[in-house]
Amino acid sequence: MSSPADTIAALATPVGTAALAVLRVSGPAAAALARAIFGELPPPRVARHADYRSAEGVVLDDVLYTWFVAPHSYTGEDTVEISCHGNPFIAQKILEDLLQRGCRAAEAGEFTKRAFLSGRLDLSQAEAVMDLIHARSERALAVANQQLRGSLGRRMEQLIGQLLTGLAMLEAYIDFPEEDLPPENRGQVLDQVRAVRRGADNLLATSHYGEILRAGIRTVIVGEPNAGKSSLLNRLLGRDRALVSPEPGTTRDYLEELISVGAHALRLVDTAGLNLSPTSLERRGIDKTLEQAAEADLFLWVLDRAAPLPSLPPILATRMSAANTLVVLNKADLPRRTVVAPPGLPAVEISALRGDGMDRLIAHLGEMAERFRVDVGEEIIAINARHAAALRRAQEALARVEEKLAGDEAIELIASDLRDAMDAFGEIAGRVDNERMLDVLFSTFCIGK
Q1: Range from 11-15, 286-290, 392-396 that averages highest in pLDDT
Q2: Fold designation for 8-120
Q3: Class of domain 127-206+379-429
Q4: What is the mean pLDDT of the chain?
Q5: What pTM was estimated for this model as a whole?
Q6: SS3 85
Q7: Average pLDDT, stretch 28-39?
Q8: What's the rounded Cα separation, in Å, for the pair 7 and 121?
Q9: Could you tell me if 235 and 255 are in contact, meaning their C-beta atoms sit under 8 angstroms apart?
Q10: Most buried of 268, 275, 354, 446 (most Cβ within 10 A)?
Q11: Are strands 20-26 and 8-11 parallel, antiparallel or unpaired?
């Protein structure tokens, strides 16, 4: 990305026809641009109505514009936000005029990167902006909001503060080597390190919850051909997504769709039927079913209520348990010929054809989804893969500290490992000076964010 000395501009709302579109201009020339276009700067944070005239004097639209004075803006820089009518052609003409007047087109994530560089957001809060934009469930939205308000950053500051106390003690003995570190002080440092490791462990435990909040709880629908798996998918979605036919084996590949259940999003995966005597084509579909099952968080095992209990492939049976599996006894609209009751697994009777029992099924799924939640104090925290990698590096450094403290090794070596742990913790909130890493991280954002 280029220097923050540039004044950048971009559309801050999605491309497409709408009632409104918003363009954002941020940087040192924002005030001069606003005066040149509108003739004046209004008081900060006060919207004004005006004609937007191009550099050639042509009226492009009547707009509302708002002036934000640094550092009290999203980016921490002087900023102008222009709200025009949501015709993509109008928005594009205004953007072209801004570029003609000397702005540079903002790169992906550049507004948020400037907010981070100016100290308006720490790195975990900047990532929360993207989580907030893409949240697909009530819980994902709540976690993103808390992280945007600094929940993870505060937690990391606490852990870093604990390590700093121990490091300060060690540094004192490095600076004044006349005295050896008394055993009781080594024990105090060791207690602090162990407390920090427990705190880091608690955060790491939220890693999988973070994954499923961002991507959805992977819920794989399995069962024999013609048990009603695709009918169940369609019923849960409220529309015909999968082809349904009386002929067994209609589904040869898996389908994925996202639904909301309670506070969570579930990523439903409809799979090929588990035929014990498959054709070569069915065999390929079953192999894909087993691949999906290996990555599943939850299983919906669909059984024909009027048929005998089938066997499961051993590799699938070992993954399914009462904690992650709900048996769906389908075809409740037909007379029962065989009592199907898989031992030890919760079950619910439904008719995917008529919709009977769907409320009970959805309620049960909501309860199962809630079990993935991991509490860390009063706030809901769910770290991402980058946070988890940094925490693991910190844990490795802290393990070395414990080993060296127990082994009575040199204080200088122990202090070095403590600094490594603090550096890893610091990467989470953004105490880093790594331009390449920041460019990669913010490049995942959308233009205008």
Answers
A1: 392-396
A2: Gyrase A; domain 2 (3.30.1360)
A3: mainly alpha
A4: 86
A5: 0.80
A6: strand
A7: 96
A8: 20
A9: no
A10: 268
A11: antiparallel
